[in-house]
Amino acid sequence: MALPPPDSYRSVYRRVVLVVLACLGFILGIAVVIALAARFAGDGNAVIAVILWSLGLGFLLFILVCLTAFRVHRWAIEAGGVKIEERPSIPFAGFPRQALVPFVEIADLREIESGMDLILELVTRNGICYRLMESRSPLAAGQPSLAAFGGQLRSAAVHGGNPLSLRQAPGFWNGPAGLGVIGVIFLLSLAVAIVVAWGLASGEMSHQARSYQYGVLVVAAPIGVGYWFYRALKRRRALMRGQQQN
């Protein structure tokens, strides 16, 4: 495959928010189905059938959401603007999108920290938003990082007659809704960790090496989610302080 030129950037855009919300919706939906089936169904076999059908359909919908959550995005800086190409990573899992945005039509250029990912966001004057995510793959020699590419794009826009500034902006996980979702994930992971820790301590769970390692990972999950919450909250506070100073 030919390498992209130095004034372009290509990466897989991962819609993590969509996958996380779909996962939480799947868990909540199954819990509701089980509760309703146990409450209103008198036949035990019917309850099991309803639960199994709900699990199958819910899992199928979750897989479909995951298939549409990964897209290939490529931006290229050209003479009069930036050429944007988007397509699904998996064929037929979404619609492609292409655009050539003139520099003078760029209304805002932002850097967003979304969890562990850096995102470059471009907003046009008519409100259309395009996003480019930091690549997880090693960059080829001579290829700029996403932050460096954002600086190149800003400089090109300035030379094209649009005095843009590349500003820091909050992402979904730094807002109240995102922090609330992380809080729900923390509570769920904490509940599961308590059950698993009790099982390991009381001997109810197998002490085979592999099972024990998995159990330790589950118990440690709330620590990772807690760090995620701390990082998102710290980022939010830093952005709010920067806005107050400006």
From TrEMBL:
Keywords: Membrane, Transmembrane, Transmembrane helix. The chain crosses the membrane at residues 12-40, 46-70, 177-200, 212-230. It comes from the Bacteria. This is Uncharacterized protein. The lineage of its organism: Bacteria, Pseudomonadati, Pseudomonadota, Alphaproteobacteria, Rhodospirillales.
